[in-house]
Amino acid sequence: MSKARKIIKRITKPFLKKGLDYYYRKPRGFQYQDIKVMVHPKVFPPHLTLSTKILLDFIAELDLNNKSLLELGCGSGIIALFARKKGANVIASDINEIALEYLKKASEKNKLKVECIQSDLFENINQESFDYIIINPPYYPKKPKSTKEQAWFCGEHFEYFEALFPQLKKFLSEENNTYIILSEDCDFQNISKIAAKNDIKLTPTFSIKKMREINIIYSTNL
Fold it and tell me: How many domains does the chain have?
């Protein structure tokens, strides 16, 4: 991240947080194509953030028919629902039980069957392999103080990634396609070091600049 961007973010962050807290004081609807979800205030918000929409546009180009797909840390679950609409057999997991409760309701309303599993990373995922794994991770280095904050903060010492990559390694193969989205705002150097320590390569696959922020989707390979 450039020095100018760091200064701008430091100045605007307090105002942005207050604005987001006010906007998300109650459940809000979110829609992609004809899929609609309600997002609880304690769930990662796809409305004013970029990553969810970028991932939706990205997987819109993938052939998911009859493929197995895991959305790890699904939040609102709209990615999982969209993947199901494209023909995938979908498991959506999250540590946040509220997120899963709302996703189950959205699954019924949209008539798109998605299996919902409460899980801390892969802890409760019993399926041994997936054709696709989609991850929109927390990456700000700060200790989360609540379940909601776990969607934003990865721990002071990147504990989320220290736990993620050793578990993810077991699912990677030539047949698997795992995609993880990161922003230029993250400390990619540290994240990539943790990946490399686990013999995982992060290869940039797609990048896009929106609202002066660059987001990059990485494929993960052994």
Answer: 1
